[in-house]
């Protein structure tokens, strides 16, 4: 069977307002990130001769956590800053400070995935390392296979995905996604995950024989926990990215987060993707309705990314969106996530 991906998508609006002056600039970019269409196929999976196992190269502590217990994680790092429910059956244990950010995905007491950015131990790589340097040591390939009992899976990466988030097979059941800043051509983040978690995320087009793991259907209450976690994750990662580029951090704004959440929910409920509601009102009107005052403001939106880190990678790799992420004029940020619709509202306050 083949999974074909539909485009995740992101959009930006920049709003500059001094009292009632309003100017906006809008760009959009399609990002392939989330397959929702299944088609039957009789194509036979093949073993790839150029596929290698690189586990002897990886000495950074981030890889060693896969398969370890949450108790050992707590002994090493202490109590997590937060425990955020994910949409895929595991819980994110979040550890961060001004220099680094780590999320450990824990399922049934076992670490199944790790995402990290900032000052973290990921030898033989390092955050900020160039694509060319890494690609000289590891030849990224377009087809990566995974065997699980009687089930066979093969991930197919596009040219764009090879540049932005190549997939490396670390062992028979562990994979690495490298997230590159495609504008600077530098490594911006890393994710290590087991094969079953990779199948639940389905971030690439995939051929398979056998069965796909089922993802639990969430209740509205569980979804809200997931959404609140992703809102904080986007906020934290935004500030790590800003620090990497020498930009001051932004502060969390609860009122603006409510504005952002309402827009994400409205887009999902009414099945549209725009900075403008169906009645034509935009960010300016939404902020005015909640009596939000500002000197400058901007908005990033995204949809159909499997989680917050992948949405952040999409924004960073779009020129207009990264301008909002790294804008020195912004002092505050509100984030609103509803299901897989994401909204960032930036403000510059006096």
From TrEMBL:
Pfam families: CAP, CAP_assoc_N. Residues 66-204 form the CAP-associated domain. Residues 236-344 form the SCP domain. It comes from Cerasibacillus quisquiliarum. It comes from the Bacteria. Coiled coil: none annotated. Keywords: Membrane, Transmembrane, Transmembrane helix. The keyword Transmembrane applies. PANTHER family: SCP DOMAIN-CONTAINING PROTEIN (PTHR31157), SCP-LIKE EXTRACELLULAR PROTEIN (PTHR31157:SF26). SUPFAM superfamilies: PR-1-like. The chain crosses the membrane at residues 5-22. The gene is ylbC. This is Putative membrane protein YlbC. The keyword Membrane applies.
């Amino acid at each position: 069977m083949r999974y074909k991906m539909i485009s995740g998508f992101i959009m930006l609006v920049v709003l500059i307002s001094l009292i009632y002056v309003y100017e906006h600039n809008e760009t959009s970019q399609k990002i392939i990130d989330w397959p929702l269409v299944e088609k039957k196929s009789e194509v036979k999976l093949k073993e790839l001769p150029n596929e290698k196992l690189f586990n002897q190269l990886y000495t950074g502590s981030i890889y060693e956590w896969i398969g370890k217990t949450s108790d050992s994680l707590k002994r090493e790092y202490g109590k997590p800053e937060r425990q955020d429910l994910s949409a895929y059956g595991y819980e994110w244990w979040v550890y961060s400070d001004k220099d680094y950010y780590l999320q450990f995905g824990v399922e049934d007491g076992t670490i199944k995935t790790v995402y990290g950015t900032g000052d973290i131990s990921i030898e033989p790589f390092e955050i900020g390392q160039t694509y060319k340097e890494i690609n000289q040591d590891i030849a990224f390939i377009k087809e990566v296979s995974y065997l699980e009992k009687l089930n066979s899976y093969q991930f197919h990466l596009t040219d764009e995905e090879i540049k932005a988030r190549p997939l490396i097979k670390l062992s028979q059941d562990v994979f690495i996604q490298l997230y590159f800043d495609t504008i600077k051509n530098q490594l911006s983040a890393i994710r290590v995950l087991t094969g079953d978690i990779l199948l639940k995320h389905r971030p690439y087009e995939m051929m398979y024989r056998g069965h796909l793991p089922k993802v639990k259907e969430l209740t509205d209450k569980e979804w809200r926990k997931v959404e609140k976690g992703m809102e904080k994750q986007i906020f934290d990662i935004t500030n790590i990215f800003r620090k990497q580029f020498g930009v001051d951090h932004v502060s969390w704004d609860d009122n603006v987060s409510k504005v952002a959440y309402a827009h994400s929910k409205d887009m999902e409920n009414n099945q549209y993707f725009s900075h403008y509601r169906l009645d034509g009102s935009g960010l300016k009107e939404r902020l005015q309705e909640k009596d939000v005052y500002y000197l400058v403001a901007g908005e990033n939106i995204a949809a159909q990314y499997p989680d917050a880190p992948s949405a952040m990678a999409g924004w960073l790799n779009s020129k207009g969106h990264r301008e909002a992420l790294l804008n020195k004029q912004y002092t505050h940020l509100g984030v609103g996530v509803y299901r897989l619709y994401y909204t960032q509202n930036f403000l510059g306050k006096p």
